[in-house]
Amino acid sequence: MYRPSSVWILVLLKVIESCPHDFFEASEDTCLHLAQPTSQIPKEEYCNQKGGELFGRPLTPDMEDPLANEIAMAASMWIPNGAYIGMERTSRLDFGRDDDTWVFFDEQDNPFPESQYTVWATFANSGEDCAVVGLDDNLYVSPVNCVNTFALLCEKDELPCESPNLYYSNYDGSCLAVLKDYKSYENGLTSCPDGHLMKVKNESDLEEVAQAFFNGRFFGGVYIGLEKKNGKWQYISG
């Protein structure tokens, strides 16, 4: 069963000339480490194993940009090169025939002309009967061969977004998750836990797609040792 866990920030005061491996320099005297420990290892124990302590004090202005840059880099390294959406050519299963109409996976009675779909990065060639979104085309929709394997852009129809099998996040009322479980389109149709492949219908959907891609790496947020105790917020270091 899928168990989501947050991404922790671990801080180690710099007492040597350079930061240890897996750490980055956040300020003149502070090295930080971004990690996603397993649910079996408590965050404090994980920090001890890395030779530091859990971050638990306010961020100073000189630390904000280095931390933001590190988070952005970690997110970009995590993002898959493409993710299937729930759209296919109407003739997908009619081998040897290319139709110029497309349908969303559960709307077989409502085909639409390829030329009227406004979110294409480029029109489809022969044999490209399925579609993905990815950073190479600024998250616009690109046609692909359905046997190629990609990640999955999953959507859960019903609120709340919580699911025991996949961490869906709420983006303006849409429950979305990027599942890095590389599948062909046919296998991907039934591989979104408690959901289905997202139907990207127009450009207004692209903002939600972008949020799902860029926030997916840190779905649990970034823990900085700020906790609420007895009704008051305080850092764990006091």
UniProtKB/TrEMBL annotation:
Keywords: Signal
InterPro entries, sorted: C-type_lectin-like/link_sf (IPR016186), CTDL_fold (IPR016187)
Signal sequence, renumbered to the chain: 1-18
This protein's name: C-type lectin domain-containing protein
Source organism: Caerostris darwini
